[in-house]
Amino acid sequence: MMIRKMARFLQAGALAVFAITLPATAADVPLGDDGLHKPDWLRQTFLDLPEDLAEANSEGRRMLIMIEQKGCIYCAKLHEKILTDPRIEALIRERFFVVQINMYGDLEVTDFDGTVLPEKDMARKWGQIFTPTLIFLPETVPAGKTAIQAAVAVMPGAFERNTTLAMFQWIADKAYETEPNFQRYFADHFVMDNPE
Questions:
Q1: How far apart are CA 142 and CA 21, in angstroms?
Q2: For the chain, which terminus, N or C, has the lower number of CB atoms within 10 Å?
Q3: CB-based burial label for 175 (10 Å; 0-12, 13-18, 19+)
Q4: What is the CATH number of the domain that holds 118?
Q5: How far apart are CA 112 and CA 126, in angstroms?
Q6: What is the largest CA-CA distance in the chain?
Q7: Is residue 13 one of the residues assigned to a domain?
C-alpha cells in the first residue's frame, strides 16, 4: 500500500515537472472574433502604421506586421508550435511590437505612404498572397515608401523554430547591417542540433 502511494506521489510529481517545462499549447493562444490567434503580446492598435512605428521606436522595439487569415493551418502552426517556444516568445516580448493584419479583413490600415485601405486591399496592394507573412520594419521608413517597400525582411510561411528564432534575432540585433545574407548568418550562429 505504501509503495503504491509513493509511486503515485512520484508519478504526480513527474507530471507536474513535465507540465511546467512544456511550451504553451493551442489552448493558451486564444482565437479572436475574426478567427485569428491573439497572443497576449499582440498589440491592439488603430492600424495606423506610422503611429505604430513611432510607438515601437519610443519603446525601443522593432515593429513587425503579421498577415494572417482565418483557418490557415500554417498560421496555427506558427502560433501554437513555433512562437510558443520560450526562446522566441521571450524575444518577442522583450524586443518586438507586433501588429496583425487579417488578409481578408475590413479594418482600415494607414500605410507609410499615406494610403488608407481595408486590410484585404492593403494585403493585395503589398502583393501578399501567403499566410502567415511576417514583415519586419526598419526604425525609419523613407518618405513615400510602403511597408512592404521599406521592409528589412519579409518571411512568408511558418518555418521551423531555429529558423524563426534566427530571423527574430537577426532583426532584433540589426545583424543584417553587418551580415545581409540571412542564410550565412543562420549557418554561422545557429547550430542545427535539432532541425525543429
A1: 44
A2: N
A3: middle
A4: 3.40.30.10
A5: 12
A6: 77
A7: no
